[in-house]
Design a protein that fits this description.
The protein folds into 2 domains: about 180 residues, Tandem AAA-ATPase domain (Rossmann fold); about 180 residues, Rossmann fold, CATH 3.40.50.300. The chain has a 6-stranded mixed beta sheet. It has a 6-stranded parallel beta sheet with strand order 9-14-13-10-12-11, with helices on both faces. A two-stranded antiparallel sheet has the order 7-8. The radius of gyration is 27 Å and the shape is globular. Helix 7 crosses helix 17. It is built from 19 helices and 14 strands. The chain is an alpha/beta fold. The longest helix has 21 residues.
Length: about 450
């Protein structure tokens, strides 16, 4: 998304992408002076042409930046600013509005629902063109007044929204449109059945969850404590499913390696990443998770991209799902699903980037009859909403069920299962014993 560059440009991005921006600016604008702000104590260089910093640091420096005289501001992965109430969004909104040229870059402007666009449109000074906050909420989010205020989880008039976005401020270029030489990306959902101890552990945990849902009252489910417990138990199920898939994941990785192919493996939980990484031969893999430093991240990427014997890139979807270029591999293995379709799409695209010469295949390991399969179904519904609003695709209409959050959709399935377990078993009626019924005996004798 862009709003009507000279020197004095500021690039703001997630911490994981700071070094990427520095490297790309050096590559394409070698004549410009770059200042990278990595820590609060670094301060601001008044003589730099381009300043690169994280969203959180920009929030701290907002007062200084406002009077700094920037001509252009670029916000990378701008969906980080989708929450109107978040401190970083509230701090940066007036700053972005005060700079003549603002570019908010993201491949996923809608991660869940049209309401994700509100803060971005406000920053760009475009929200009034869509009728203002209330009209946007009612017309495009199917908003309704609930007990705790306006509910903006819905979606409506998506074709109109798509058209108006493109007319006003959205520049949307799909890879298929602008990179005709880029081979296609194929997503494959590979079902598997859990077995052994992993299955037993998962089923025990799932049974405990269903028992709790069966006994909980509606008030308990709606309370803050209840919602917290639900989230905790759903995430525990996700981890249990992930741990149970470590062995199948290793078998798949061995297949890639035996075929002489590199593979990028995405997980969510450290326990799953540990189980995979610990089983791989030393020197054949690198890893990035939320604890990896910026310098170590870049070193891991460089090693995977350039060293032939480094064949496996084990990564956290959250920590490595954006910004990185991993075109040394054309195979992606997704071991654990995420709540948000965009997180998975971004992760797959680490290999599907400029420089890729092969078709990219993203294989998702999906454990049947688990939280995995429920999550995949719900996420696909969310992906349909985003595509229809932003790309004008879909066309099948958005039902209220599709507009629910992924978590609520998954929970609804478990609640239904719990209710089924709650139904009392019907007892079979006993046949009357004729010898104890004299009246029947008499009737039979005299009949």
């Amino acid at each position: 998304m862009t709003e009507a560059t000279t020197t004095l440009t500021r690039a703001v991005c997630p911490a994981s992408l700071v070094l990427n921006w520095r490297n790309e600016i050096r590559r394409w604008l070698p004549h410009r002076a770059i200042h990278v702000v990595r820590k609060g104590k670094d301060g601001l260089d008044l003589d730099a042409d381009v300043t690169v910093m994280t969203y959180d640091l920009a929030k701290k420096f907002v007062n200084q930046l406002s009077g700094f005289g920037f001509k252009t501001i670029i916000g990378d992965e701008a969906h980080y600013l989708k929450n109107e109430k978040a401190q970083r969004t509230q701090a940066l909104t007036p700053l972005v509005q005060g700079i003549a040229r603002a570019h908010l870059l993201t491949g996923t402007p809608i991660t869940n629902r049209p309401a994700d666009l509100i803060s971005l449109l406000k920053m760009l000074g475009q929200l009034d063109a869509f009728g203002g906050w209330f009209h946007f909420a009612k017309h495009y989010c199917n908003a309704w007044k609930g007990e705790y205020g306006w509910n903006l989880t819905g979606a409506s008039n998506l074709d109109e929204l798509n058209t108006k976005l493109r007319e006003r401020c959205l520049v949307r270029r799909l890879k298929a449109d602008v990179l005709t030489e880029l081979p296609p990306k194929v997503r494959v959902m590979q079902p598997l059945e859990l077995s052994g101890q992993g299955e037993r552990d998962y089923r025990a945990l799932e049974g405990h969850f269903l028992d709790w849902l069966r006994e909980a009252s509606q008030d308990e489910l709606d309370s803050a404590e209840g919602r917290g417990k639900i989230l905790e138990m759903l995430n525990s199920l996700r981890q249990a499913a992930g741990v149970a898939k470590i062995e199948p994941a290793l078998e798949a990785i061995d297949g890639y390696r035996e075929a002489g192919r590199k593979v990028v493996v995405f997980c969510h939980h450290h326990a799953v990443m540990n189980g995979i990484a610990d089983a791989l031969p030393a020197g054949t893999w690198v890893r990035i998770d939320g604890t990896t430093s910026l310098d170590a991240r870049q070193a891991a990427v460089d090693r995977f991209q350039t060293v032939p014997t480094c064949t496996v890139f084990v990564a956290s979807t959250k920590a490595a799902g954006v910004g990185l270029t991993l075109t040394a591999a054309s195979d992606v293995l997704v071991v654990e699903q995420e709540w948000v379709a965009a997180d998975l799409d971004q992760a797959e695209d680490r290999c599907h980037r400029i420089g890729q010469t092969d078709s990219v295949q993203a294989v998702h390991l999906v454990a049947e009859d688990t939280v995995d399969s429920r999550l995949v179904e719900a996420v696909e519904r969310k992906r349909a909403i985003a595509q229809e609003a932003i790309d004008g695709q879909g066309g099948a209409g958005v039902t209220p069920e599709m507009a629910q959050s992924v978590m609520k959709t998954v929970l609804a399935g478990y609640l239904a299962t719990a209710q089924e377990r709650k139904k009392p078993k019907l007892k079979r009626a006993k046949k009357p014993r004729v010898e104890n019924r004299p009246d029947i005996q008499v009737a039979q004798e005299t009949g």
